[in-house]
């Protein structure tokens, strides 16, 4: 993630990884609030308590953490 003040931009690699994990394209992500909303939308789309759902949420959280760490 590239950060300039309060504005962010996901790198091509991050966009591809989020899309691959969630099958939901991360578009119009310009602030951390936008990214948080995208994460929440993905988790709401894939809701449940199954082991697979918990694993998917963990993958999303892991990718999110890596983005935040890079900023």
Short synopsis of the structure:
63% of the residues lie in helices and 8% in strands. The chain is built from three helices and two strands, in the order ββααα.
What proportion of the residues form beta strands (DSSP E)?
A: 5-15%
**Count of helical regions:** 3
Helix and strand succession?
EEHHH
Q: Count of DSSP E strands?
A: 2
Helix content: 55-70%
- Outline: elongated
Largest sheet: 2 strands, antiparallel
- Spatial order of the strands forming the largest sheet: 1-2
Kindly provide the radius of gyration, computed on alpha-carbon positions and rounded to a whole number of angstroms.
12 Å
Contiguous runs where pLDDT drops below 50 for at least 5 residues: none
Overall mean confidence score, pLDDT = 94
Protein name: Integrase
Organism: Aromatoleum evansii
Write the topology of this structure.
Layout: E1 2-4, E2 7-9, H1 12-22, H2 32-45, H3 51-70
Antiparallel strand pairs: 1-2
Helix pairs in contact: 1-3, 2-3
Descriptive account of the structure:
- This is Integrase.
- The protein has 71 residues and is mostly helical.
- It has one domain (2-70).
- It has three helices and two strands, in the order ββααα.
- A two-stranded antiparallel ribbon has the order 1-2.
- Helix 1 (12-22) packs antiparallel against helix 3.
- The longest helix is centred in the last third of the chain and has 20 residues, at 51-70.
- The model has no long low-confidence stretch (mean pLDDT 94).
């Amino acid at each position: 993630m590239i950060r300039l003040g309060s504005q962010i931009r996901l790198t091509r690699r991050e966009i591809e990884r989020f899309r691959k994990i969630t099958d939901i394209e991360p578009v119009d992500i310009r602030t951390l609030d936008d990214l948080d909303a995208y994460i929440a939308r993905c988790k709401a789309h894939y809701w449940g308590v199954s082991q697979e759902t918990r694993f998917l949420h963990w993958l999303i959280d892991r990718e999110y953490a890596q983005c935040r760490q890079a900023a």
